User: Fold Transcriptional regulator, AraC family from Brevibacterium aurantiacum.
Amino acid sequence: MADVIHAWHPNVPQVQEVLHAQFEHHAYPSHTHDSWTVLLVDQGTVTYDLDRHEHRTTNSTVTLLPPQVPHDGRSATPDVPFRKRVLYLEPEWLSLSAVDAAAEAPTLFDPSVTSTVDQIHAALNDPADVLAAECGVLALRELVQPHLKSPVDIASDKPLARRLRHLLDDRLDETFTIAEAAAQSGFHDQSHLTRHFRRTLGTTPGVFAA
Assistant:
């Protein structure tokens, strides 16, 4: 079986390049990209060193490799081919603060992340679906950001969620909006507040106050 490589540069914002490939024996030497690398391995298993730590791809998960961090790659089983799809996204797609978190934990186990990446590739296969691909890339950014927070960031969100919980406890007999709760708790990004309330307390403010 010969190696098969299909690479192109779609006219989609934030997307530098797309690669669909199947390799029988190919191994990548250590290298870096100036982009975020979003990897789906559809067949086989790949082992790779990222920032001198060994990792392995798993079925139905997405691997996110940060820019300017050395990595290599090879089939986990000698003589067993692997097939992959890759998105190379602009370095500005995620903030620089996410680089260290991605280097430490590059595997994203969220099924919605995998599904979104799959949908992006499907849209990229059709030149008429540029808008769908762009929307998918934006949605993917929102999905991966919660997975790339450092322990310090997560800890700083907990007092905020606790303030909202105390506010809800004090006003269980009243009707009010998330916007009002966010303003009174000193935080005006409503979606961010709701997301971290759910992460800290395991439920949403609507459900909690019901």
About this structure: The first strand starts at residue 4 and ends at 8.
